[in-house]
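Async update (no meeting this week)

Hi team, since we skipped the sync, here's where things stand on the single-chain job. The sequence we agreed to prioritize is pasted below, unchanged from the tracker. I ran it this morning and attached the output directly underneath so nobody has to dig for it. Comments welcome in thread, and please keep replies under the output.
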Amino acid sequence: MINLVAVKAMAGINYIRADQVMAIAMSEPTKCTIYLAGGVTIPCSEAAKDVIAKLQAATAERPVEMPEETK
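Output:
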């Protein structure tokens, strides 16, 4: 399943794939720029530490529940 993370953009909300983030640059205490694979940049109106926390939560390993096999 794709992990999409909502980040506050300058003109709304962007949903980004957590596994495509290459870097995050802080431009001001409450703003940052997200660099994605393929050269896409997304300016955000959120602090870099908040975006990093969201990405870490989205990519945290979660055990996959498998359905019990019935015989």
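Quick observations from my side:
The chain is about 15% helix and 40% strand.
The CA atoms of residues 18 and 55 lie 6 Å apart.
Reply here if anything looks off.
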